[in-house]
Design brief:
Putative tetratricopeptide-like helical domain-containing protein, mainly alpha, repeat, TPR-like_helical_dom_sf, about 325 residues, PPR/CCM1_RNA-binding, PPR_rpt
Length: about 325
Amino acid sequence: MLKMMGKTSFSSSSYSYCRSTRGMLFLHTTPIVALFPSKSSNSTKSRQTQRGKPRVGNVEHALKVFDEMLHSRPLPSAIRFTQILTQLARLKHYSAVISLNREMSLLGIASNVYTLTIIINCYCHLNQMGYALSVLGQFFKSGLQPDVATFTTLIHGFVLQNRVAEAARLFSKMLGRGHCQPNVFTFNTLIKGFCMIGNNSAAMELLRKMEERGCQPDTVTYNTIIDSLCKDTLVDQALNLFTEMIGRGIAPSVVTYNSLIDGVCRLGKWKEAKRLLNEMVSKNIFPNVRTFTVLVDALCKEGMVAEAKSVVEMMIQRGIEPDMVTYSSLMDGYCL
């Protein structure tokens, strides 16, 4: 395997490290872009506040722009305020977003569906699911209808807190309502939750339900289940799912191969690991630091420390910087 790897040419720019763990989180947010007519002004800052999407680089700048907007007359629309809240949420200043939204309410600036969904997301990240659920009441008071993003955000919040059963109940209620159909992000979020608690059968069942409802699984869907199966040493099932994935025309990624290589290495199937490594390279999917770290860890656990050290040296030669996990695995090998 090492000989084959040594002949392969890798570029350091081709690597992106994605640690494949049960706790991987994801939340997809689509920004709202809207234009608000501006008045003529000599102030550049004022023009930035009134034209296009307000850009903020940090929380201080965001608060300043928000304050300028509050003092503008006429007041900008809720969409423009929501754009600021969106950027603050991306900067992970969740409490600030909630506070600013309260100021909006005091001034009579009505929140829209997207605004309230952002607030739910902030409460979820602050581990305040009770408040997140209470925001649903604001939807109905305002005559608004929660959409798929709203429900997906709440489901994600429960998954974040490992409250997967509650996430599943909310998903069932979403299906029962009928007017709001789950999308691939909704399914992926709940599938990740099931995999986090090791309930692979429920994850597989949800995958089949996706197909029944005409929702197309994507690479993330398959990667999540394959990774979970490999962690539970259910490698044959993972390889079968991998074959299904390829058959459906869904392209695997380096994350897919990393999980499979990790799985076969756990079982000491070195020939299979070599085959997968050859296959990924032939598809122009180049190993990253995670791939090599998996190999180093597996070799060390088998007492093959010299071979593991050679992998680390090869990484460095190829411009791939080993991380703490790589070196920890190598040190553990010397201690065995």
